[in-house]
Amino acid sequence: MAKSDAPNIQRRQFLKFSGALAGGAALTGLSSAAVAKSSEGSKSFTPPTADNPIRICWNENPLGMSPKAQEVARATVVEGNRYPFVVTGQLQKMIADDYGVSPEHVLLTAGATEGIRAAIEALAAPDVQLVVPALTFDAAEETAKVNGITKITKVPMQKDWGIDLAGLKKAVADYNGPSIVYFVNPNNPTGAISKADDVEAWIKSKPANTMFLMDEAYAEFADDPNFRSVGPMLKAGVDNIILLKTFSKLFAMAGMRVGWVVATPEMIGKLREKTASNALNFPAIKAAIASWEDKPFIAYSRQSNETARKILLEVFHKLDIKYVPSNTNFIFQKLDVPLKDYQQHMKDAGILVGRAFPPADEYCRVSLGTPEEMTFVAKTLLDFRKKGWV
Ligand SMILES: Cc1ncc(COP(=O)(O)O)c(C=O)c1O
Q1: How far apart are CA 128 and CA 364, in angstroms?
Q2: Is 111 near ligand 1, meaning CB less than 6 Å away?
């Protein structure tokens, strides 16, 4: 989506942010005030090197785990001789309580990736169709392929890289058999949301023989009021949703491999059969519990991401770089130069950006680092403009 096409909300947020810079504070002015406030407790910034680059290529959370989670994980290592099932129930219950469902509605997984895999494997059958947007996280498609699902329908994206809901609906309606719809909201790699009203209406219409795999890995970063989690629908008893979640993003636990699934108890039972029991490790589960309880860290994580996003958007606006409005911890940036050149110039500057995401060949996915890192990236982009590299 072109910058000028961005929804008003995006523009308003940008203006609000610009207002915070009253007094003519430039990009660098921002870096000291906003950055210092949002980065309490984070590692101090040192300029990147080839050995220690700014890693904004994999949608990781740059803050590191909650200090409380780190402490608990370290302390739990000494209990590594014990099976972890004494605490899995605790995490499962905490999550269930939050959604207002019973623990039987919740399955803990080794990251959302295992949840996606288990769901596809549980639903796979020779006549099943997987319906996916043409540009989205690829785990569902990859798992379907190795599980004998031959009918994979990829629905082209809209012009602005939004998900074509009507196209997905048509793919389901036109197929004479069961469908799995894999729906990432907000989507990766675009960062765009699909409107909750539309998504919910489709799910509630209960298309025959259709299961919705709703992947909300990035939901907590969304600030567009048109986005809503489908969590409350599960509480209300809707039975055609499998909700996939992760501790990798907001909670900064990608390396610990913890995720969860919410669905009906019957569906959770089917998914459980596709997971290894006790696959999660003790320190990771304890860290997840501590993270879940660490509300100040959660707020800090969200705030830091928002500040980082604003820093990058400010330089995009300054340089008239177009992008897809982001509701995630990354931004899909439109390039005027070949992606390979952009990646290389960034790499030479000590910054690793995202890979190619065909068919969006003119775009680069830039994950959001710390505000300090994004200030460095912003300065680098200003420098690139002088050299004609962006
Ligand atoms: C949409 C989406 N779902 C799931 C995942 C995987 O998350 P996890 O680390 O929990 O396996 C990612 C990772 O980037 C993702 O983008």
Answers
A1: 33
A2: yes
